[in-house]
Amino acid sequence: MGDMDGPAYPVSSVDRALQLLGMLRETPEIRLSDAARRLGVANSTAHRLLAMLVHHGFVAQDPATKVYRAGSALLNIGLAAVQALDIRSVAHPFLVEIAEVTGETSHLAQLEGARVRYIDAVESQKALRVASRVGMTLPAHCTSVGKILLAELDTAALRTLLPTLDLPAETEHSITDRSELEAQLEIARQRGFAVNAGESEDGVSSVATAVRNARGVAVAAISCAAPAARLPERRMKALAEVLLDAAARLGARLTA
Question: Of 100, 40, 30, which is closest to residue 65 (Cα–Cα)?
Fold first, then answer.
């Protein structure tokens, strides 16, 4: 067992690279000599570590002064985190509204590669309800939120994300054929919402629509989920109208 200060078997180069990034939290600029001194290594070793961070965009070097600053990749990670926090704070009242109007559980989710992550939820007040999935990730093609966000991709991008014809299943109702998924995504594009009938969890159905920012880019999806017995196809269409209205008003509140 290691002590409480870190893992039992740290990888020294990774540990040193992270220490360098930590230095940027304390000061906006790092000099090579300062980095070497802080790490207790030779200048050549510190230079190799910084060069690798520059290569991946985490650090940028000023060509004139030779000092190192935070790079675009590091800034983008920070901005992504801030934006995720921002959309949750802006979207939460809308999730509350959706749950109150429909009586069912509402979710906010974002696409992460070929999976979808649930980042906020408001549970139904009914005894039999769909539980919050906040923090969970699921294959995007098995969920309504994932499908409506996959529908934003063109065919080439979708096939890059899902390179094989066979897709993994979560339940016996999951779509396992990419061609079938593509057909469903086309329907979702035309009507503006996607559905999930027991494809991510047995006995659970949902409907979802995309949330677009001021530039018209889909940045998230909102959904309404319920036990399948309470969500026949005719009700899915009614809930989709609620979601489409909420998504339009929510999108108007987003600045980026």
Answer: 30
Q: What is the dihedral of CA 231, 236, 242, 243, to 10 degrees?
A: 100
At 11, the pLDDT band (50, 70, 90 cuts) reads low
Do the strands 68-70 and 105-112 form a parallel or antiparallel pair, or are they unpaired? unpaired
**Region for residue 57 given its phi and psi (left: phi exceeds 0; alpha: psi -120 to 50; beta: otherwise):** left
Residue 12 has pLDDT above 80, yes or no: no
Q: How many CA atoms lie within 13 A of 36 on its CB side?
A: 11
Determine the average pLDDT of the residues in 17-39: 85
The whole-number pLDDT of residue 228 equals 95
User: Tell me: the pLDDT tens digits for 88-144?
Assistant: 889 999 999 999 999 999 999 999 999 999 999 999 999 999 999 999 999 999 999
Q: Cα(250)–Cα(90) distance, rounded to whole angstroms?
A: 7
Percent helix / strand / coil, the chain, rounded to 5: 50, 20, 30
Q: What is the DSSP letter of 140?
A: G
* 18 φ/ψ angles, rounded to the nearest 5 degrees: -70, -35
Which residue has tokens 């070497």?
36
Q: pLDDT value at position 144? A: 98
Q: What residue ranges in the chain does DSSP mark as E strands?
A: 59-61, 68-70, 105-112, 115-122, 137-139, 194-197, 204-212, 218-227
Helix axes 233-253, 72-102, angle to 10 degrees: 130
- How big is the CA angle at 39 (ends 36 and 41), to the nearest 5 degrees? 55
Backbone angles phi, psi at 210, to 5 degrees: -85, 150
Amino acid, res. 10: P
Amino acid occupying residue 241: E
